[in-house]
Structure formats: structure tokens, C-alpha cells
Amino acid sequence: MTEVVRTRAELAARLAPRTGTLAVVMTMGALHSGHESLLRAARDRADAVLATIFVNPLQFGPNEDFDRYPRTFDADLEVCRAAGVETVFAPSRPEIYPEGEPMVRVDPGPLGAELEGSTRPGHFAGVLTVVLKLLNLVRPDVALFGEKDYQQLTMIRRMVRDLALDVEIVGVPTVREPDGLALSSRNRYLSGPERAAALTLSAALRVGADAAAAGRGADAALAAAYRTFGSGTGARLDYLVLTDPDLGTAPVTGPARMLVAAWVGATRLIDNMPVELSPAAPEG
Predict the structure, then answer these.
(1) Distance (Å, rounded) from C-alpha 113 to C-alpha 2?
(2) pTM
(3) Domain ends where: 172, 197, 222?
(4) How confident is the model at residue 284 (pLDDT cuts 50, 70, 90)?
(5) Helix 123-138 and helix 8-15: axis angle, to 10°?
(6) Residue 45 maps to which CATH number?
(7) Which residues, 6+ apart, have CB-to-CB distance to 63 below 8 Å?
(8) Are both 232 and 139 inside the same structural domain?
(9) Tell me, what CATH number does 225's domain have?
(10) Higher-confidence residue: 167 or 63?
(11) CA 92 to CA 97: how far, in whole Å?
């Protein structure tokens, strides 16, 4: 039985008799198979699972899609029920921000101005503020986030470490369609031709990862991925980078991460993939 609570008071009452471990999965609704994988992973890690559904206005810029972001609560609730979620916290905007937009927000630091942050100023301050607020309200033992939003996951982990929060942050691998497209709530904005063009993102990542594994080096792997965005693909590249798993420095060998963002029509998509940089193959 899944219970929906909408106020802080209802949430506190629901959690008051808590026994055992609690996992939280934070969402903005419009749930898809990627969210289902998060909920299943949460079920495997804790005695009880709580999902949040809240379209956070702080992380949308003035020209972004807050108003048209899909709201599908009834369908989302069915997904949560099927996944065995005990509690869904679905607060209103005034419930989370009773005094309007908060004057105090979490400063994301230098990484908050890079990659997604360079295109979406203030985005990560909004993300980290609502995540911190929800962590304080729910007090979970573990919180699970998808690797699809890898920069977000990295920054949440850093916030938890830097602020000494008593919660384990777990990343769950990206779920993809059979043709490689990363699942995203924004995919529903794509027309048929645009969806085909969106495959350029995952194709570029695979090409780059293959080049890295073949020992061609970081520069060659990145260049191979760039070439995938040729003329006529229908995808307009925003950024494509190869960095270490903490998004700090350019690696030479070992584990790395390739991240990409591109526009397909009026929809901006992101994707990423783990990369293993093998030592350069010997010449000759």
C-alpha cells in the first residue's frame, strides 16, 4: 500500500514510527523506466522506500521549460505502487518554499558554473538547495540518484561530504532504450525525426569509449566522439568533454567520464558514459 503525503506535518507523522532503514528517490515526476530502476535499487538497499515528486522551480532558468514540464501524477503513483514504494511525498510549491523563493541557497562552488552550469546559471544552486531540504525533511539512510544526470550526482555527493550529512549517496546506472537513447522525461518532447537525431549523443559516447579502450589516448577519443556530430545529424552540440570521474581534471589513463549535451530541435538533452582510458598502444 502506497500512501501519499503532501505536507511536512503529514510526512513527519508518517515517518515518526519508523523502524529499519529508509531509502529516498527524489524525482520531478514524469516517471519512466529509469526511475523504476532507481526505485527497484532502493528497494534492494532498504527496508522502506520513499519517493518524492516535486517539480522544483529553483532549478529552471527564465527561458526553460518549467511550465511545460510534464506533470503525470496519477501515472507516476502507479509506477511507485508497482515498485513497492511505501510513501510518496508530493508537496506543493508553498509547502517546500512557504516564504517564496529562499533567500539562502546552497552555493555549488566552481563546478556549479561548468558544463550544465555554464549554460544554466543558478541551476545547481536550485538543485542542491531542494535536495538538502528534502534530505533534512526525510532523514533517509540512503538516497539514490541516476547517473544520467552525472554532474548533479557528483555535486550532491560533494555537498554531502562537505556538509557532513549523515546519508549514503548511491548512483544508479543510466537506463537506455534498445537503440541506446538514454531515458529522459524530456524525450517525450521529441518528434520521430528528432528522436532519431537524438541517437547522436549516445553514438558519440560509444565511439569515444571504444577509442579510449583501444589505447588511442584521451585526445583521440574525444576527437572521435566529436566527429560523430557531423553535418546533417540534426543534433547541435553544446559541449562534449572527457574528464575524471569527479569532473575535476583531464585523465591520462584509468577511469574517466565522457559527458555530452546537445540541442535536438527545441529540446536540450544530456548524456554521459564511463570510459576506461587504456595505455596508449605501442606504435608499429
Answers:
(1) 39
(2) 0.94
(3) 172
(4) very low
(5) 50
(6) 3.40.50.620
(7) none
(8) no
(9) 3.30.1300.10
(10) 167
(11) 9
Q: Identify whether the C-beta of residue 7 lies closer than 8 Å to the C-beta of residue 80.
A: no
What percent of the chain lies above the pLDDT cut of 70?
Answer: 98
Alpha-carbon distance of 268 to 225, in angstroms, equals 18
DSSP 120: S
Are 204 and 260 spatial neighbours (Cβ–Cβ below 8 Å)?
yes
Name the amino acid, one letter, at 152.
Q
Q: Point out the domain boundary residue: 172, 206, 232.
A: 172
> Is 68 a member of any domain?
yes
- 148 secondary structure, DSSP code: G
Instruction: Tell me the pLDDT tens digit for each residue of 136-185.
Output: 999 999 999 999 999 999 999 999 999 999 999 999 999 999 999 999 98
Alpha carbon 148 to chain centroid, angstroms: 5
Residues marked active site are found at 35
Count of the separate structural domains present in the chain: 2
For the residues 274-281, what does the mean pLDDT come to? 83
Q: Residue 282 falls within a domain, yes or no?
A: no
Angle, to 10 degrees, between the axis of helix 218-227 and the axis of helix 192-213?
160
> Among the residues of the chain, which ranges form H helices?
8-15, 33-45, 73-82, 93-96, 116-119, 123-138, 150-162, 192-213, 218-227
Give 19's pLDDT tier (boundaries 50, 70, 90). confident
> Left, alpha or beta for 83 (phi > 0: left; psi -120 to 50: alpha)?
alpha
